[in-house]
Amino acid sequence: YVTDDPINDVETEVKEWARVKKIEIDELKKQEQFRKEFLGNISHELKTPLFAVQGYIEALQDEGLEDNEMNRSFLSKASKNIDRLSLLIKDIDAISKLESGEIQINYKKFDLSALIKEVLEQMEFKANKHNIHLIFKEKYNFPTWVYADRDKIHQVLINLVSNSIKYGKAGGTTSLKIFELHDQILVEVTDDGIGIEEKHLPRVFERFFRTDKSRSRQIGGSGLGLAIVKHILEAHQQTITVRSTEGLGSTFAFTISKAK
Ligand code: ADP
C-alpha cells in the first residue's frame, strides 16, 4: 500500500513484520515448553515401573534365589511392571504420532453398531473380572453407517469402555448408547462407578492427568488413554465431552460423522 509518506510506510511495514515475528517466536516458545513438559512427564512415568523392576531383580540377587515362593512373587511383580512399561511405551508412541500430525486418518464407511458389539465382546473378560455388566441395547440391532477411521474409533471405544470398567464399582453397569443427530451419530459410554470431582473434569483429557495419582496409577493405565481419545476425535474434526457426578458415575459422549 502506498501513501504520500514513504518513511511512515516503511515504519508501518517494519512494525507489522515485528508483530508477526513475535507471534511466531511466542508460538515456538510454547511448543518448546510443551515438548519439555512432555519429555519430563515421560521420563517420570517410565521411572516408576523401571525402578520397581530393578528393585525386584536386586532383591532376587540378594536373597540368593533360595526362597522359592518369594522368588516367584518377585518375578511376577517384575513381570507386571514390564507389562506396564510396554503399555506406557505403546501409548507414548501413539500420542506423539497423533500430536505431531504424523497419523493418517483412513476414512471409510462402516457399521458402528457392529464395531460396538465387537468392542464389548473383547472387553467381556475384563468386565467379568471386575464384576461389571456391559450393555448395548438390542434396539441397535440394525447397522449404523458412519464415516471415519474404523481402527481409530475402535481404539476410542476400547479406551472409554476400559476406563468405565477400571473406575466402575463391582456389580455396576457400563452402558453404550447411540443417538442420531442431524449429520452425526452421538455415542455415549455411561458408568455408575466412582465418578469424577467437578474440579477435575476440565483436565481429564490432558496427558498424564489423573484425579487421584496413587489410586489411578495402581488401577493401571498410562494416564494417556483419554488424551489419545481426544486427539483421535479432533483429527476427525469431532468432539468429546464428559459429565460426571462424584460417587455416582460418568458419561463420556463423542460424535462421529454419518456416512452419506
Ligand atoms: P488412566 O490410564 O489413568 O486411566 P486416562 O487418560 O484414561 O488415564 O484417564 C485419566 C484420568 O481420568 C484417570 O486416571 C481417572 O482419574 C479419570 N477417569 C477416566 N475415566 C474415568 C471414569 N469412567 N470414571 C472415573 N474416573 C475416570
UniProtKB/TrEMBL annotation:
It is an enzyme of class 2 (transferase). GO terms for molecular function: phosphoprotein phosphatase activity; phosphorelay sensor kinase activity. It catalyses: ATP + protein L-histidine = ADP + protein N-phospho-L-histidine. The keyword Secreted does not apply. GO terms for cellular component: plasma membrane. Residues 41-260 form the Histidine kinase domain. Its EC number is 2.7.13.3. GO terms for biological process: cellular response to phosphate starvation. Keywords: Kinase, Membrane, Phosphoprotein, Transferase, Transmembrane, Transmembrane helix, Two-component regulatory system. This is histidine kinase. It comes from Arcticibacter pallidicorallinus.
